[in-house]
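Q: Predict the assembly, please.
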Amino acid sequence: MTSAISAQGLTLRFPVYGVDNRSLKKYLARIRVGGQLAASSGGATMVTALRGVNLSLRAGDRLGIVGSNGSGKTTLLRTLAGAYMPDEGRLEIHGRVASLLDLQVGLDPSATGIENIRLRCLVAGMSTAEINEKLPQIAEFSGLGAYLAMPLKTYSAGMLARLAFAAATAIDADILLMDEWIAVGDADFQEQAHERLTSLVESARILVLASHNPQILKSFCNKVIRMEGGKAGPIMPIEDLD
Amino acid sequence: MAALVGGLTLLNTQLFGISTQEYLPWIAVGFLAWGLISVTMLEGADTFIAAGGILRQGSIPMMVFVWRVLLRNLIYFAHNLVVIIIAAFVLGFWKKANLLLGLPGLLLVLVNLSWVVVLLGIISARFRDVPQIVASVMQLALFMTPVFWMPGKLTQHRFILEANPFYYLVDAIRSPMIGEALDPRTPVVLIAAAVLGWILAFGVFTVTRRRIVHFL
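A: Predicted assembly structure:
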């Protein structure tokens, strides 16, 4: 099956709850005091994070997303990853999606390095057989050696980043979602990591990369869109990025 | 757990004037069942809150996290069961134990706990004071439910027993395992609760599933 992303009129709204709206006791008290207040969606502020985004990508597309902070880049990536369900519009995704939005997600501090690699791969949707096959290679790439048998809480931040990176980038994906180009570890590891990420990007059929760095975008993407206030501009060739 | 059960046996056999032979199986198995029920509910409140990072990143089915809580507590249960099995052989109540009835009882409890976990997980994600409320309710429920005391002593105000859902949950596991007759109302109450509870939980889940990730 060919990989493709097709989105039409994606609109996403979500409620943002203040501290006052997070208490059941206060909520119930408010209903008793004045039902009207509570009836208005619990007093939460609705944020429209995406407004009618259209997107059509096929195999070979490398899309860069630019835009200022709060323009909806990450929300769009999370929607493509399937974490947020759009309120309006249609979204169709064909192919296996790997989201490298947060590398350290799902890690358990009291489990060992090896156990965490397994956990991270399971979260990414790999099968047990696939994990067993990839485990030696992930362990080797992390360069942590004997430390992999120790609990994660004994790791330094750099070691943790190495482990998370090695595990997260082990997946074979058709569609790769990335929020900023990932750089981890010391100078030596950074180079290896850059190489690995580059080969991952090259083997993926579709890349969607949100970044503030024009150099990165120019070297990895062939198309670009600009997000502004939840709206996406038209897809432009990367040469038009100023 | 063994220390707690031992200490309470020493105290309560004297307070209530019951023999150790009768009281120890009661409290040991009762406390085992209580642990399964209460810890699952306490952790259930944290189901989706703890999964926030994973849920924001991809499209893993949310029920995975519900099963995760249940499975983890089933492992705790199996772990504590070892103590009970030893006690059962030492005290000899294994001869009376009815595993054929105990397993369906455990299953019925798990089916009920699972819908409670779904509901608590959703409500707690939205209202962050719910986990604390659950904790205080469970504390009260521990004293109101016949875990440490025996319902035979309760002559007046039987509604304390009959209106307490935790009584039936504990009974479904405890009575078969210590070889006593199940309260005839237990299967009826638990099956009815399972059906109604799952309908409620499924309804709430259907309505809020798109929103849960935004609550986190």
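Chain A has eight helices and ten strands. Helices of chain A lie at 24-33, 35-39, 73-81, 113-123, 128-142, 157-168, 187-203, 214-220.
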